[in-house]
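Dear support,

I submitted the protein below through the web form. The confirmation email said the job was done, but the results page showed an empty box. After a refresh the structure appeared. I'm attaching both so you can tell me whether what I see now is the final result or a partial one.
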Amino acid sequence: MRRGATLVALALAAAGAFAILGLAAPAFAKDRLGIYHGWAAFRDPETPRCYAIASPEQRVSGSVRSGYLSIGFWPREGVTHQIYVSLSRDRSASSSVAISAGGRRFRLKASASGAWAANRRGDLAIIAAIRSAASLSVESIGRDGRSIIDAYSLRGAPSAIDAAALRCAQ
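What the results page shows now:
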């Protein structure tokens, strides 16, 4: 798994639901940078890192967990615009994970419950598609053989991504 993806998966799995709902929880205290139509931007000063995050607006086939899509920034490591997807259900080991946005389809590297772009070029291509599209879907096949389709609205995504990028650039 790429640097940062594990950190995002662990920290955001618990904090993601609180973040998207705008709820405060002392154990997950983060600096909220803004809420943008269902997308949120946060700064975690302890790591340090910043990220834009959203939950799917629609899930197909009985999700087990909420899932999320995040774009992370780790200034100390020089990592920016890193995509990470937490699937709403575990995928089949024989199934790939793909993101579709703006008429483009991107195949991701994956674990049982998450996925990420193979490299920086992939991250940046997905970000470009996010900036030009109205929606995005993450697709795979679950362990039970049923489709996993998590659909995200991208309204507010560019603003949340920019807020996270700007804050971590400081």
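Response: this is the final, complete result; the empty box was a page-load delay. Helices lie at 5-21, 120-132, 157-169.
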